[in-house]
Design a protein that fits this description.
This protein has nine helices and two strands, in the order H-H-H-H-H-E-H-H-E-H-H. It has helices spanning 3-16, 21-40, 45-49, 53-64, 67-93, 102-122, 127-146, 160-165, 169-183; strands at 97-100, 154-157.
Length: 184
Amino acid sequence: MTNAQILSACRTNWEYRGIDEASVREMLDELSAHLEDAQTAGRTGQDVVGGDVRAFAAAWARARAPLPRRVLRAASLGCFVTGGVLLLSYLTRWTTSLEMTPGYIAFWAVLGTATVVWKLRRGSLGIRRSWAVALAAALPAALLTRLAGDAVLFELPLWAAPLLLLPGVPYAAADVRARKRSRA
């Protein structure tokens, strides 16, 4: 793997993890200097970052972005996704209120929690694998709560979905802009 490929992989990882552009540039400059020093000393870029570039970038990102900031970002994006799923539920059922049952709540709570925890601990598996892991956790939870019955706990009005979308909008917009910049 060349130094340019290492830098590119690290940039993509850091942007995906929500590290701001100024910090990404600073980290890339520092890593570039280390890679050049290693090359001058006759070593490869792999000697600097190790065998797994993604793990190296993830470890540095975790050190750079403290846990409270990552939790806030993950929770905000979790609310954003929850709001989107609820909005989709309202639209597909063509209703202005949803009946919340224990199974419905357990399924989405475990699905969201598993996804957020996995992202905070391990980084990205890709959308298909992370949803598969989350579904593997959420389906048994929903099935177990079905044993408690299908009683309606409360009805959720339509305005709750856009309200849940709000905390994640800045993070989602920043992610879209970062992906557009990385493609250009």
